[in-house]
Design a protein that fits this description.
The radius of gyration is 17 Å and the shape is globular. The protein has a three-stranded antiparallel sheet. About 35% of the residues lie in helices and about 25% in strands. The chain has one domain. By secondary structure, the protein is α+β, with helices and mostly antiparallel strands. The longest helix has 15 residues. Helix 2 runs antiparallel to helix 3.
Length: about 140
């Protein structure tokens, strides 16, 4: 059995309501158990976001959860599916899928851990990876 950590980005603070977090964690444990993972411990941290002007971190919209489990090491697609089933941010799941489909290894980053970048340069706009991703998703979406 491997030590596996599932990372979720939850863009809400509804879990701050009385008994919500405890019940939510319990249901995540049930999901993990049904997929043959044993929850060993979990952690929750307030999410952070980068200020677009300064690039500095500030409080985000919700929480980041880390579920430490015992079980088989999932493939990248299995990991993304499990994150989705556990309630990970839909945008993060979508971006992770695109990254896996294009062969990127660092597909599961928490957004606040990505360095702030300005609008894409000409070099970026002409990048083959960007063109391939746009082809996969059917063009610009934002």
């Amino acid at each position: 059995m491997a030590n596996v950590v599932f990372t979720l980005d939850m863009d809400t603070t509804v879990v701050d309501e009385p008994d919500f977090n405890e019940e939510w964690i319990h249901t995540r444990e049930m999901i993990l158990n049904s997929l043959n993972y044993k929850l060993v411990k979990w952690m929750r941290h307030k999410s952070k976001t980068r200020d677009p002007k300064t690039g500095k971190l500030k409080d985000g919209r919700g929480y980041h959860y880390f579920f430490h489990c015992l079980g088989k090491e999932p493939t990248p697609l299995e990991r993304i599916k499990i994150n989705f089933l556990m309630g990970d941010c839909g945008g993060r799941v979508f971006i992770s899928l695109l990254k896996v489909k294009t062969g990127q290894k660092m597909f599961e980053k928490i957004f606040s851990e990505v360095r702030y970048r300005k609008m894409p340069s000409k070099r970026c706009l002409n990048c083959n990876l960007r063109k391939h991703i746009l082809e996969l998703i059917g063009g610009e979406r934002f």
